[in-house]
Amino acid sequence: MAGKRANGEGSVFPYRTGYAAYVWVSQPDGTRRRKWVYGKTREEAHGKWLTLHAAAKRGPVVTKVSTLADYLAYWLAEVIKPNREPNTYSQYELFSRRYIIPGLGTKRIDRLTVRDVQMWLNKLPGICRCCAQGNDLVRD
User: Fold this and answer.
1) pTM, whole model, 2 decimals?
2) Same domain assignment for residues 50 and 81
3) Domain range enclosing 81
4) Of 29, 28, 46, which is closest to residue 37 (Cα–Cα)?
5) Which residue in 7, 12, 120, 129 has its CB near the most CB atoms, within 10 A?
């Protein structure tokens, strides 16, 4: 028979090949959501749970890692538009929309590597721009 859990540890439990735990956290937009942590052992999962629990008590916790497309939209609107000339903003928006987002936009920011960027840069010269942007479909 399994032992009794300690007070407040009701969210650490066996899961697949290890253990899982969750904490209800407040997000920056004001909503509450469950954030999960995993570990091979109960102690590892419990340690991650304690860290997450402490972060949730300090304030809002981000539960979703943004993609490069999301970050570029934020960067253009909040950093470039207020601080640069309108023509600079329009050129940056054009280049990001036409080139960067189709190639790397779905990549998560925390998993974007130098290798990903280099592979994308190596593929750029061989890509037909009108086909990649769907201009041929419009002409038909």
Assistant:
1) 0.58
2) no
3) 68-139
4) 46
5) 12
